[in-house]
Amino acid sequence: MDNEDLLPYRTGTYLIFDNDPERPAKDGNFRSGRSLDPPLRASGSHQLDAEMLADVVNRIAKESPDVRGMLIVDLRQESHAFLDGRAVSWCADEDWSNVGQAPAWIARDEQCQVEKLTAAPDTLVYAVRKDGDGNIEVTGRSPVLVTRPATEEMVVARLQNRFAISYLRLHVTDHCAPDDEAVRAFLQLFGNVAATTWVHFHCHGGDGRTTTFLTMYDRLAAARARGPNGSPPDLEYFRNRQLRLFHYDLNPHAALKRWQAPLSEVRWRRLESFREYIFDGYATGQPWPGLSHSRPSHLDEQAITGSPPSPENAGTG
Fold first, then answer.
1. Which of 26, 80, 234, 277 is the most exposed place for a label (fewest CB within 10 A)?
2. ω into residue 38 within 30 of 0, thus cis?
3. Rounded CA gap, 310 and 29, in Å?
4. What is the extent of the structural domain holding 246?
5. Tally of domains within the chain
6. Which long-range contacts (CB under 8 A, 24 or more apart) does 19-23 make?
7. CA dihedral of 30, 31, 32, 37, whole degrees rounded to 10
8. Is residue 162 part of a domain?
9. Does residue 281 carry a pLDDT above 90?
10. CA angle 247, 256, 135 (to 5 degrees)
């Protein structure tokens, strides 16, 4: 590699492998809520390669024989795909390559990348590191010949197991609190999850976004299980439940002086607002601001509840 490639220059995004074989995350940062008391039918991880993702599905099927369906929830806003089974991303500073873009634009961007790699399979994959401010530094690059590019939705569709496996996407900006649209979509999609459905969340690293949504899902489960006279648990209760599973701490620590600290504080306040809503407004049928009372589409309904579409929704699209 030429020395000038090591200089900090900008191409917009860099194509990178999400999993570095020289620095693998332990077990893909996988954790399962089965060990909690009460248990949570959900798990989380970082972005897994296709083979690792299949192993997780098989693991859940083996350990939870009563599970009849699985939802793989992709929390990533940034464009990503798979090259011959390896997870890749188009990475930018702070992981913010798609901030402000609509979900339809992001989906089309990923599809265009797959089409481009199918037509022109020779490409470059970069090795990068991030400095203390989240900015990318290029450390190397390698030529790659791609034979099988795919979106994550395509990879999930190929997974086979004894239960149905569905793919859902919530576009959440890395390091940030979920915005109102993401919260509304979460409530619409996950308010009707069947008791026999397992939910697996993932983001890029498996830290902030994954832990945030596992916590939110835990609150939904707690709200459904709580009796009419029970006291709602505080935010620390849910934070500590996640810390029993994984080392990432949602509580912002100003002493760490990380560039993400102000964003973590906003996220913590958003999680408290969500907790208050779940045990008050949501429990009494009040919508999150702007949330309509319309039923999910027949596709979402079947995927989330594990039931066939209701008659009034059948045949719509």
1. 26
2. yes
3. 38
4. 11-124+150-278
5. 1
6. 19/46, 19/47, 19/48, 19/49, 19/52, 19/86, 19/87
7. 180
8. yes
9. no
10. 90
